[in-house]
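This entry is retained here.
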Amino acid sequence: MVKRSNNPFQNSSGGSLDHQAGVAAVDVCELRPQEFEEIRGLVHRAAGIDLQPGKEELVSARLRRLVRGGGFRSFQEYYYSVLSDGTGRALEGMIDALTTNHTSFLREADHFDFLRQHVLPHLRRRRQIDFWSAGCATGEEVWTLAFLLNDALPGKMVHITASDISNQALTFAERAVYPAARCEGVPREWLRRYFVEEPPDSYRVAPRIRAQATFERLNLVEQFAARRTYPAIFCRNVMIYFDRLTQERVVQRLAACLEPGGYLFVGHAEGLTRISHSLEYVRPAIYRKPESKGAICSRP
């Protein structure tokens, strides 16, 4: 079950629900520089997203439906409405609209090769395997991990904690139904074993695999407790949207959630060389928490 609040501003396709409730469409003024700076500051404080100058067109395009749907005549009216919403749902709706959830099955495949060759062999004695996909987007990374774990460690209990800041992405990921076009890179054997065909042209992740993942809304920028530690955390193509200080805080929190000897996988476009952290470099986009006595994962 997904642990998150409902977002009243958006439907599953990212559009506004307010116009469906009878709010007439209104003309919206162009996004002004001051409005961009106000929205930019709010999103950075709330979610760590660093909207650099030059992103004005993107912000305008992604928020315009919410502005129109809410009956606002300007981005500033909408901005003040978000600020005054004590439930926080309007802010979640804004963040949903501005986050990018592009991903795919087996994305950056060398990470999964490394996992299979160097990490999973050291977990064979465990009864249960727990991983964390932090910034899971629409779920393809979660299910890729689940398929790989079930292949490599048959008979083990598998559990993947999947989190994201976007309610909309989490809804899609939890539903676990993907158009056939998005499954073109999935090995045929995985399609046969781990999916159920969903006519006319989609695939649904099989229920037994679906039961191995738990989804929850989590803002990595906010303080969160390390409820457990993991032998591997995937947080890929998330930190490219943060500034350096935010990256340092997030990596510090992720490191606290790693077992000694555990691995952090980041996106290939977001190496950690520019920031201070306590992890050891292993390979491009792969880092490791220093071992302590008795650590299960070992250096490849």
